Automatic annotation (TrEMBL):
A Gene Ontology molecular function term of the record: ferrous iron transmembrane transporter activity
Recorded topology in the membrane: Multi-pass membrane protein
Swiss-Prot/TrEMBL GO biological process terms: iron import into the mitochondrion
Listed name of the protein: Mitoferrin-like
UniProt KW Transmembrane keyword: yes
UniProt keyword list: Membrane, Mitochondrion, Repeat, Transmembrane, Transmembrane helix, Transport
Family stated for the protein in its record: Belongs to the mitochondrial carrier (TC 2.A.29) family.
First and last residues of every Solcar repeat: 22-119, 127-211, 223-313
Length: 326
């Protein structure tokens, strides 16, 4: 799915049916579990990012941390404030929503990604970064349609003094007060954000993988986990940083009106950017930059280690015999 799935699915790995001995559905299972583990493990960092991005929209949304241009100091203040006033569980509010959304969204991502890659010729021998990137963008568009509603619920629950008691309460109240449209207010922004994210991620991934292979050609292999982790981590960090302004807009749209947060006349990205800058300045578009980068860098390592472990597990048939390897 979206950013996470970009990290999970290596564009050049030979993880197709023919050379891993796995059925198509097993790739979906492995990817779904990897995505869920990644999001759950990194959830506290995501909570800090959401609180920071809502700073300026409403004082009751984010916490007591002051406006500061020093992002690393701001992270420390937000973390300390949450731990002191809400306890460790405050970092995990909304995690159930992400758990419900990440699995199905990753399943959609992998199925659409594999179908598009096959149709476009991305499974042919050789490197096809543009074809893989295009497949990733299409897959992202489909998976975001599944994840966005739960992402909205997740972010509203992450807010300080959230008016919702839990996932069910949030879903029912949103549906009653805002209708289905409320769950997709940020969908367009999410797509616009994840398209360049995917492009930057794949481009950086290819460049980093090439550098790593040149440093130690006798050891570096496209199928080696560390190459995936290091290249994917760098790609995720850069892509996350570049798309931070759009992520701020997405967060503001998803949480508008909650806890007294600013509202927007429409879901227009341009109007939202203009309104945020007019009130808070351009620096507001970089809020949450550090935790966003800190999220996507290790996320690749978590995603890939889980993905490879699940592939290894699923490569055994019901009788316990390993599937043939090519």
């Amino acid at each position: 799915m979206t950013e996470a799935s970009t990290q999970t699915q290596n564009p050049d790995s030979k993880t197709t049916h023919e050379n891993d001995g796995l059925g198509f559905w097993k790739f979906m299972v492995a990817g779904s579990i990897a995505g869920m583990v990644e999001h759950m493990a990194m959830f506290p960092v995501d909570t800090l990012k959401t609180r920071m991005q809502m700073l300026g929209a409403s004082s009751s949304c984010s916490g007591s941390a002051t406006h500061s241009s020093h992002h690393h100091h701001q992270i420390g203040r937000f973390f300390t404030s949450i731990m002191r006033k809400e306890g460790p569980l405050g970092l995990y509010r909304g995690i159930a929503a992400m758990g419900l959304g990440a699995g199905p969204a990753h399943a959609v991502y992998f199925s659409v990604y594999e179908i598009c890659k096959k149709k476009l010729g991305g499974n042919e021998p050789g490197h096809h970064p543009l074809l893989h990137a295009a497949s990733g963008v299409v897959a992202t568009t489909a998976s975001d349609a599944v994840l966005t509603p739960m992402d909205v619920v997740k972010q509203r629950l992450q807010l300080k003094s959230s008016p919702y008691s839990g996932v069910k309460d949030c879903v029912l109240r949103m549906f009653k007060e805002e209708g289905v449209k409320g769950f997709y207010t940020s969908y367009r922004t999410t797509i616009v954000m994840n398209a360049p994210f995917t492009a930057v991620h794949f481009a950086t991934y290819e460049a980093m993988k090439k550098v790593l292979n040149e440093i130690s050609p006798e050891n570096a292999s496209e199928e080696r986990l560390m190459v995936h982790v290091m290249a994917g981590g760098a790609a995720g960090a850069l892509a996350g940083a570049v798309t931070t302004p759009l992520d701020v807009v997405k967060t503001r749209l998803q949480c508008q009106g909650v806890c007294g947060a600013d509202t927007f006349r429409s879901s227009s990205i341009r109007l939202a950017l203009k309104q945020i800058v007019a009130k808070e300045g351009y620096q507001a578009l970089l809020r949450g930059l550090t935790p966003r980068v800190l999220f996507h860098a290790p996320a690749a390592a978590i995603c890939w280690s889980t993905y490879e472990a699940m592939k290894s597990f699923l490569q055994h048939d019901p009788d316990g015999h390993p599937s043939p390897q090519l």
